[in-house]
Specification:
The protein is of the alpha+beta class. It has two domains: 4-93, Alpha-Beta Plaits, CATH 3.30.70; 105-362, Vaccinia Virus protein VP39 (Rossmann fold), CATH 3.40.50.150. 31% of the residues lie in helices and 30% in strands. The chain contains eleven helices and 17 strands. The strands form three sheets. Strands 6, 7, 8, 9, 10, 11, 14, 15, 16 and 17 form a ten-stranded mixed beta sheet that branches. It has a five-stranded antiparallel beta sheet with strand order 2-3-1-4-5, covered by helices on one side. A two-stranded antiparallel sheet has the order 12-13. The relative contact order is 0.12.
Length: 366
């Protein structure tokens, strides 16, 4: 790569998130590009004509796959457009291929209190996928992704747009049913070929909850071409997913932990309200489902879950946290000071290389 590429940053519908997006997408780009392409790319923030952007250049004497770079830049959570820097004051538009298969409104049309920002969801998915040794599955639909606390499906919808067949789980029956209703309506509105069914989720005679399975494709031609997808939603306790899903079957886990409200896991006769207790109960199960070469992107509220406590809970489950405290820190509102922890199995075959990417976050390119 001898050129420089500019990725213009799209604004967010959320004003607060837009204000924080610069450092977040810079960190995202350094992790994602570093994991996929190696440390041969330098990324910095830049303002062009009053518009915020990322400038990406290869390090001296480094060779980078330009097509893969353009695709990765196009998938970053806030990318609005790509340009090659053709000279002083000159920008040439780039057409990057995209694996996104479905219309944008699959992610944006559903609104409800507490919904995770779509751009932040895309960031989490990109980060978790980049940590996997099977990260290339993000481009051909073969990456296995689990959201063990999926709520009303923001992460699942992002994964569907990427061509994946994701699995979600949530203990809240209302959320599970709300997602089923939304997805059914969306598929009918867009005239997709689809089937949706819900059955009892029973293990050894015990009913754990429900299983909803949706199969979908834009049309018959896509079905015949092998482009049909599935999304599975398990209405059950996240800590019991190991009884339902196969061990070491997941490449990437994306979770937005509860922020100190009712959510997540039954225990001791009630519903756990403590994010730390939820993490302690569930982390071992998540690790058992994750392949040794898999990765986790975990969003947390610093007000209710201390970084060191989260690190210890994950370590007890055989997971190593790669990111430092505050690596993706940003304010959501007065009660939520959000951060992202990236973690991998402690025996991950690329642990040293991934851990070295943390140092890239301290760089200030000239």
């Amino acid at each position: 790569m001898t050129r420089a590429v500019l990725a213009l940053r799209a604004p967010s519908a959320n004003r607060v998130y837009t204000a924080a997006a610069g450092p977040l997408v810079l960190a995202e780009a350094r992790w994602v590009l570093g994991a996929h392409l190696g440390p041969g790319v330098v990324v910095r923030e830049r303002t062009v004509g009053g518009m915020h952007a990322l400038e990406v250049r290869a390090r001296a004497e480094q060779t980078v796959d330009e097509d893969r770079l353009d695709t990765l830049l196009g998938l970053l959570s806030t990318t609005y457009g790509l340009f090659e820097i053709a000279g002083e004051g000159l920008l040439r538009p780039l057409e990057a291929s995209s694996p996104l298969r479905h219309p944008e409104d699959l992610e944006t049309i559903l609104k409800y209190p507490g919904k995770t920002n779509e751009q932040f969801t895309a960031l989490l998915v990109n980060l978790a996928a980049s940590l996997s040794t099977r990260r290339s599955g993000l481009f051909d639909g073969t990456l296995s992704l689990l959201d063990p606390m999926c709520g009303r499906g923001t992460t699942l919808n992002r994964a569907l747009r990427l061509g994946l067949s994701p699995i979600g789980a949530d203990i809240d029956r209302k959320d599970v049913e709300a997602y089923r209703t939304f997805l059914t309506t969306w598929l009918r509105t867009h005239r997709y070929k689809h089937q949706i069914s819900s059955t009892s989720l029973t293990v050894r005679g015990e009913q754990l909850g429900t299983r909803t399975l949706a199969e979908l494709a834009p049309d018959k031609a896509a079905q015949r071409a092998g482009l049909a997808q599935q999304v599975t939603v398990l209405g059950c306790d996240t800590a019991r997913l190991g009884e339902v899903l196969a061990a070491r079957s997941v490449d990437a886990i994306v979770a937005d932990l509860p922020y100190g409200v009712q959510h997540g896991a039954h225990g001791g006769g009630g519903v756990q309200r403590s994010p730390l207790e939820v993490l302690r109960r569930a982390a071992g199960t998540w690790r058992s489902l994750l392949r040794d070469g898999g990765g986790i992107a975990l969003a947390v509220n610093r007000h209710t879950l201390d970084h060191d406590a989260a690190r210890e809970a994950l370590a007890a489950a055989g997971l190593t946290v790669l990111t430092r405290d505050g690596a993706f820190r940003h304010r959501v509102d007065q009660s939520i000071d959000r951060d992202v922890l990236l973690a991998v199995p402690s025996n991950h075959p690329r642990l040293e290389q991934l851990a070295a990417l943390d140092a890239l976050q301290e760089e200030t390119p000239t």
